[in-house]
Design goal:
By secondary structure, the chain is mostly beta strands. The chain is built from 4 helices and 22 strands.
Length: 336
């Protein structure tokens, strides 16, 4: 869609934003380009086609996590039905007006006509909190991607801007779902009212691979390490990670990356989530107590007579003098 001639025709409404905002924790900071904190005039923009995006460029004042996104959604007359839109996307900054790679996104946000909508969870059951890590001074981009067209229909709700003037380098539009443009150059009257809430003290959470091979979400890195697990990074989810670790397979003397279940199936020794090196097995320590003594010799002879795989020292699937010789050689060398 062509936006140049549409923005000049949008309606405006006077709103008191204070009554519409949700409260934030004391350690949270709300980042915004707009100036509607104490009330002001908004410009409603029914000028988007499906697949297009409105985005703001923000800069974090601290090391922390994005824990909420706020979007002002309004129709000219008010009272419009709720709108299910495509997604809210958080990008890395990139090169204005083009954002960088996607950091995270919230699919299917439902927007309510009349004011500021706040989102703190990635799912409708409110079990997966938004937690997107950012560092002090980091610039990032927050975008609303439209699923429904409201182009030229002023009865439909849409994103709004303030009327204090459009700041260059702060507002963009993805026109026709393909080309990013400076919103100011397209005639937007002010800054999009899209905000990010940063928790400047909270620890990041993500998916943890635990020693038993399972995965647990909403774990901090410190708690994961304390449990002997491997953390997969802020915002990670179990559906998107594999809990792999080094697996030593005695039959082939290979060290490969497997999850614990697969390692067990092939008869391997799993070294834990996130491990990359296999512990060198002590072949002569037949009973696995970490000490070489008479009990290991006795255990080897018993296994040899029973043709147990643990006595197949040379790994050729036969039991003969060469296995005895190989065991005695390993025994004499000792264990690491």
């Amino acid at each position: 869609m062509v936006h140049q001639n549409v923005f000049s025709a949008v309606g405006s409404a006077l709103v008191m934003l204070g009554a519409l905002c949700t409260s934030a924790n004391a350690d949270e900071v709300t980042l915004q380009n707009d100036d509607l904190d104490n009330g002001g005039t908004i410009a409603i923009c029914p000028c988007f086609a499906a697949g297009e995006e409105a985005a703001v460029w923000l800069t974090s004042p601290c090391d922390g996590n994005i824990v909420a996104i706020q979007i002002f959604w309004r129709s000219f007359l008010g009272g419009a039905p709720q709108s299910l839109e495509e997604s809210i996307i958080v990008y890395e900054s990139g090169n204005f007006p083009n954002p960088g790679p996607i950091k995270d996104q919230l699919d299917g946000p439902v927007l309510t006509d009349g004011g500021l909508n706040e989102y703190r969870y990635k799912d409708e059951n409110q079990t997966i909190p938004i937690s997107i890590p950012v560092s002090e001074g980091e610039e990032f981009v927050v975008s609303l991607k439209f699923l429904n067209s409201n182009f030229t229909d002023q009865t439909l709700p849409s994103i709004v801007s303030d009327s204090a003037g459009c700041q260059n380098g702060k507002n963009t539009i993805k026109v026709n779902g393909s080309t990013w443009s400076n919103a100011c150059s397209l005639g937007v009257s002010g800054d999009w009212v899209i905000r990010a809430v940063i928790d400047c003290t909270g620890e990041a959470i993500g998916a943890a691979c635990l020693p038993d091979g399972s995965c647990m979400e909403n774990m901090t890195e410190a708690d994961t390490v304390a449990m002997g697990g491997a953390w997969n990074g802020a915002g990670s989810e179990c559906a998107d990670v594999q809990c792999l670790g080094a697996c030593y397979i005695p039959a082939t003397e290979q060290c490969v990356q497997f999850d614990k279940a697969t390692c067990d199936i092939v008869g391997g020794d799993w070294n834990g989530p996130g491990s990359t090196d296999c512990a060198t097995p002590c072949v002569a320590d037949i009973n696995g107590d970490g000490v070489l003594n008479f009990f290991d010799v006795s255990g080897f002879l018993t296994a040899f007579n029973l043709m147990d795989p643990s006595a197949d020292i040379d790994g050729n699937l036969s039991f003969n003098f060469f296995d005895v010789s190989a065991f005695l050689s390993e025994y004499s060398m000792g264990c690491p």
